[in-house]
Amino acid sequence: MKSSSQRLILDFITYILLAIGAVAMILPFIWMMSVSLRLPANQFSREIIPNPLTWQNYVELWEKLPDQAYPYLLFNSLKISLLTLIGQVLTCAMAAFAFAVVKFRGRELLFALLLATLMIPSQVSLIPDFILFKYMNLIGTQWPLILPAFWGGAFGTFLLRQYFLTIPRDLVDAARMDGASLWDIFWRIYMPLSRPAIAALAIFSFKDTWNDLLHPLVYLPSDMHQTTMTVGLAFFQQQLQMGGKFTVLMAGAFLSILPLLILFFIAQRQFIEGIALSGVKR
What we know:
The chain is mostly helical. The chain has helices at residues 2-36, 56-64, 70-100, 107-116, 126-135, 143-146, 154-164, 169-177, 182-193, 195-211, 214-219, 229-243, 246-266, 268-277. Helix 3 (70-100) crosses helix 7 (154-164), helix 3 crosses helix 10 (195-211) and helix 12 (229-243) runs antiparallel to helix 13.
């Protein structure tokens, strides 16, 4: 009885702490939406529900971006993010399959070296990558932002490998007895059974690419028709802050995270399941 009451109290405290954390995380988002729907004269008001409510800030954002570049910024960001997502999922899945299923000499050492690269910040390799892409005459194009995704990644490989280890080895042995090749086992067994982990990796990859500001600034020209959403809004932010239009700035910020919200709500069940099971090894 005592143990049951202690567990109930512990659960209650845990839920209270989680609720406080959830409120702390969601309040800035609610405030951003509220400001984006206010009149500029009321942008510093403390009210959560705008009165009056207006959509004029979104119209003004569309009209005031140079050369009405918002559709181009949105298309460029979506294109780069989706291609990066595809490249990461394919290459990381193949590498994870090799480390989890295929037995070869030095497998554990190679995997440890791959994980060690997680300690290297991406900024460290920025200059060598720039020199490489410069020799390839790719500076000023979107390829430097897309091609590295098809070279694999340590985090994605680790995430999918941990999930692949939860799939029973008996499936591989049965497929081998039926004459299936390694590619058939990978594509027809492991990929369909790993949808939760793949969804998690897809969301992480899309989010990181969509929010990236440094690499588009380095590799892409400043032309608003060729750069990404983050760069376009960063340039536009200075103009808005000088004019005091924080309502329009919040409208741009909300539109910039809207695709991430849509993607998460579409794949949230698979995402949560993939994160929960990726660290479990049978």
